[in-house]
Amino acid sequence: NTLSVIKAQTTGVHVAVTAFDLALHAEAVIIGRVTDDQDRPLPGAKITVLRRAYVAGEKRLVQEITTTAGVDGLFTVDSLPNGSYYLVAFAPRGAEKTKTSDVTYVPTFYPSAIDGYAAAPIRIRGPGEIGGIDIAVRKARAFSVRGKLTMVDEQPSEEYTVQLTPADLHSFAY
Length: 174
Hints:
Helix content is 0%, strand content 46%. It has strands at residues 2-11, 14-23, 28-35, 46-55, 58-68, 74-80, 83-90, 103-105, 108-109, 122-124, 128-130, 135-136, 139-141. The two termini are 34 Å apart.
């Protein structure tokens, strides 16, 4: 698609006309739904779109876009150019484990895999909608890690995030 733009500017009795064309690239949209392990919608779930890129000489998954599922669990990710993407869904904070169980919702890759190596890429080859990208967020045994973040030159802030990543999952770190 091309958008033609014409700009006319008047200064006194002179009129300057500038014309140019802008090439518009259509991009893809991913549409899907996030549910729990009982096929109920997970409103407020976070969906992160990842793509492979080289970081410090290693091929890794890096974060592209994050969106939030609506009250019906539906999500839309738009403005994606051609490429291969991975999706990972996170249950909303209210869906965390109970104090009596060490089983909780865990980050789940499309199509409902808790192991990043089992994640399926979504390949985008041109504009259009890619629907049916549904993720059932899985439960697994989880552990709590406690600690204190200390800073050398600054005071600790709630803006910092500490993330644990399995050592054997380096190519899926993000």
